[in-house]
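During the second year of the project, the team shifted from modelling isolated chains to modelling whole assemblies. The rationale, set out in the original proposal, was that interfaces cannot be judged from single-chain predictions alone. As a representative example for this report, we include one of the complexes processed in the last quarter. Its constituent sequences, exactly as entered into the pipeline, are reproduced here:
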Amino acid sequence: MNSDISIVGLSLQIALVATAVTLPLGMFVAWLLVRKQFQGKFALDVIVSLPLALPPVVVGYALLWVVGTNGWIGQLSESLFGSTLAFTWIAAALAAAIVSLPLVVRSFAAALAGVDPKLETAARGLGAGPVRTFFTITLPLAYRGVIAGTLLGFVRALSEFGATIVVAGNIPGRTQTVPSAIFTRISAGDTDAAWRLALVSVVLGVAALAVHNWLLKRSTNGIESSKGRDR
Amino acid sequence: MISFDVKLDRNEFSLDVAGKFDDGITAVFGPSGAGKSSLLNCIAGVVRPDSGQIGLGGRSLFSSEENIWVSPEKRRIGTVYQDGALFPHLDVRGNIEFGWKLLDADEQRLAPLEIADFLGLSHLLDRKPDGLSGGERQRVAIARALATSPQLLLLDEPLASLDAARRGSILNYLKRVHVEFEMPMIYVSHSISEVVSIASKAMLLRDGKVEGFDRPSALLLGAAAAGGDIDSFENILDGVIGDSTDHLTTVKVGDVEISTRHLNKNPGENVVVSLGANQIILAADQPTNISARNIFGGRVSEVWAKQGKVFAEVDAGEKFIVELTENALNELGIYPGSDVFLVFKSSSVEVFDA
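Output from the structure prediction step:
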């Protein structure tokens, strides 16, 4: 039981750090994709979405190359901290962030696209700079979609397995998350313990998805009713 | 005083427009696609022209030569959009105070609550935009822009999504705002009726170029040639309710007392009068024994004729635009300086709350 709690704790820690990365990064990428016209927009869209189309194992393997001894992040961290990030919980968080980023970007993009650009133009004309406009107009109007997207990304990070096990391994107490612990227990034939953690996964997932759907339903209702009034 | 000389090339559209507007109300009009909104966006700083310059009261806002580009939030130009573009998550007070709060204390020349009061919004301050009528939304949009003490107010088709009754009211508010706050305005519209009613000068755009810059009524026929919808030109005039009998009500418009069908209004009430140019008959001699209740003597100040369309401007103490046929023009021998009589029925006059 004690190890269960620490496994869930580590999983939450990894998912939270992953979310802390995807929230600002996903928001920036979504904003670029929705509001800006630039060269390489299509390429950015493809690169960000790629983890959705690849087996997570491939993403993990690619990440291992980057954070490992030969990769530039690996060499950087080795010169700074004396070791690479491979097989640390930070690598697990990075893997979870990359795999959940496409979902987060897509949700954020939908939320931002729902905000009438004319309102942002109006705010600029009233004296608000781009950053203030984003935080006082865009974000408050898109917040339900943003929270929903964040939750979706968090859930995806929590359930990440394929990329994590390649780049971070499955080291009890260090990089063993709920999914990798379940995998170990199933392999060892410890079904009761495996089911216990599976149940935890189901509860966390259902709770997050319920909130996610509730938020999205409310935000679409809002958009529909305001459209109805314009006609 | 705003001066501009902007060139803009986009796919299948180019804008090449220069002008200088004084501190009155200047209209920019023309058919849709003529470049009205593009010009407005350049002035507001939303769109950066390819080349040229824009200056406002001695301040350079854009110069391709000197590589100057002032971002929209630093231009001190207020814009009122067609649908108001109110912030749906803020109440009326929040909307009006949005830009005002961003000003330095010494720049907060106009108090938001006084502006709200002037525009008849005091009882709506706690409402969200959702709960407002179209006319109320536009008044909030005007108040919101005014509260930032702009040096220029841009109005982008502010009446386009309103019904006839609200249009007159907003026009009236805008005229009063112009006088009360000494606010220079650029009024963009495709409706020549609105333009003639509110603006002292008008720039006619067509295919991204200036087709004319003159008194608005002088551009009537140019507007027709440019594809503007002037078949239904309306004289939109400010009036005050006078006496009523059982069947008729008098409305004072300038020096003219117009008879309308009976209105349930009190003497002294401000109203907006709308009268179609094609509803007015011109007579060379004073008609007698005629059922029409409105007969006013006046002098023709201008006549515009082109391709069978004729408009005459008649000064009868208030200026009226009259539409007639070329035939009638020739037969009556009407020319600028002619003394004529305006004749129209009391039921042709529409009266709206100001």
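Helices of chain B lie at 36-44, 92-100, 112-118, 134-146, 164-180, 192-198, 220-225, 326-332. Chain B touches chain A through 25 residues (CB under 8 Å).
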